[in-house]
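Lecture notes, unit on binding sites. The following record was shown on slide 14. It pairs a sequence with coenzyme A.
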Amino acid sequence: MEIRAEKSGDIAAIRMVNLAAFGRDSEANLVDQLRGVASTLSLVAVEAEQIVGHVFFSPVTIEGTCPDPFLMLGLGPVAVLPDRQRQGIGSLLIHHGLEVCRQLGCKAVVVLGYPEYYRRFGFGPAKQKGLSCEYPVPNEVFMVLELEPDALVACQGLIKYRPEFHGL
Ligand SMILES: CC(C)(COP(=O)(O)OP(=O)(O)OC[C@H]1O[C@@H](n2cnc3c(N)ncnc32)[C@H](O)[C@@H]1OP(=O)(O)O)[C@@H](O)C(=O)NCCC(=O)NCCS
């Protein structure tokens, strides 16, 4: 299994993985809309030359107090082909993705998702770090991971995703 950055020839396969995993086109469309936006990160999992998984990160902004500059990214969507789920591919993509985020100078990553799943990567409730979500979601599903110790000590407020997320 190889985890690598998206290449120009991967676009159709990435779309297919997102369509298959989510059973709708919203996430695939979102990735297509955000492709090429500054500070986005798109990684694929490749096995026998087939793309079997995909993870995407995009920049979020903070309305509140925060050092400037401060790169924070939102994880998602992440998708694995249905017949390849629960084989560790999603975990590989996320671990690798978080490492690339760290190398890019990203200080923290937020995610909206299943707490039981994201806890294993070190994510915890964002509210405990003083961060809230612009969307009306239960507190426990909005999580954050600091990529440097105490990265969020001086950073608190309302997290806003790219506007392309609004229709999701
Ligand atoms: C979520 C997803 C990316 C995980 O990828 P994966 O390759 O199946 O995950 P892994 O094999 O690394 O991890 C499997 C673990 O995730 C857990 N898991 C998978 N989907 C889960 C869910 N919806 N809720 C809670 N846990 C889940 C499994 O219980 C499993 O736990 P275990 O190892 O203790 O058995 C994949 O299942 C998927 O594409 N789902 C559909 C799209 C989606 O919901 N994406 C996430 C929201 S952006």
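Take-home: The beta strands are 2-5, 41-47, 50-65, 72-80, 108-112, 124-125, 131-133, 142-146, 156-160.
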